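[Q] Does anyone have a clean structure-token version of this?
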Amino acid sequence: MMNKCKLTDIYPRQKLYGNYNSKDFLKSIFLKNLDKTYNKKKIEKKIKSIFISKYARILNHERIGFYIIIKNLLKLNPQKKEIILSPYTIWDVVNMVILAGGKPIFVDINKKDFTISSATLKKAINKNTLAIIFTHYHILSNEIDIIKNYLDKKKIFLIEDCAIFVGSDYLKYNKPKKNQFRLLSFGRSKFVSSISGGAILLSNNKVLEMIDKDLSQLSSPSKIWIISYYIKTLKLLLFSNTFMFRALFFWILKFLHLAYYNKFARIGDNDPNPKLHIDLPKNYLSDISDYQINIINKKLNKTIYKDKITRISNAKIYYNELKNIKKLTLLKKSFSQSDVYINYPILCKERDNLHKFLILNNYDCSTYFYKDCNSLTVFKKFHKKLNNVKYVNNNILVLPTYPDYPKKNIVNICKLIKSFYA
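[A] Here you go.
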């Protein structure tokens, strides 16, 4: 086939953005860093400067930030328990809401940017609503200011999940107010990438005092945990290494997809095995390590914005090439510097057949983005009838946008998709 990818042009669907220096890793394991407090304060100062926040607190995991914020908001507002959120998220965010003492209220998303609309939120809010978790995905919602103003009037807290939104100009020019909190992720697959990590951005002095009290009680990071997460990261680095991927891993992946599609269609799911936590996992209650801080510090520079510009350019190619295919639903047209495009998602009729067709032609892509937590058995007591999130989950195909991905591959993927629907 004319657009079949040559061996020398095969690339993985995703690459890690971090620089996992083995020297720094070994130093963190075998040598004691006497400047830990200084390093932590220094990185928090840098984070709050880059993301224009009054305060910033760095974490071992972004998800523990949800737990800490909600737990302390509940202490200040014990009569309110409900936390409204999109179910299209990692399942552990829902666990954090529950373990903090909140009640998750799932609401539907829209198909044009996957966020919650202001109309949907207004219908779901009641006298028991404590906070909204608003997840940012690929592009900035054009209703975010409407939502923030409405929540201000209602005196409801806003927790913005910016896990995959680092690099957006929205975070450079919109300082969180007293009733607003933002969470950043520095996990392995994120734009500022470490073995794990996150940060809370806030301006509320009273809540900050409560958060600092919680953070002061965290245990020192376990060396065994650091080693295990480093090994997991090395595995991902090996899998996404271009040479190894072309020589070995892609062909295993291709065989599994074509021979056992139903079993392996979502191979590479970075959020597997959902479960309902009874207690917080032990490693969530540990502080961030010097090694993680060093990696995060090195990546917090202008390249996060340079990389974003390339991803937006790649997303624009997909949009322009695919916009006239009636059997596809694309994100709304948006290519501002407030968008990030960790990848380019399309909603497809005959999604699984299209996926196999692209794999057959040597283009690695994925049917997994986030989980529909509303459909997970572990959260069945919170289930609602939510048609859009179910449709997105069952029809999404995720295409690569990372900076090293060749533009000619993007063009060829689009040609193949056009030929598939011709």
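[Q] Thanks! Anything notable?
[A] The chain is about 45% helix and 10% strand.
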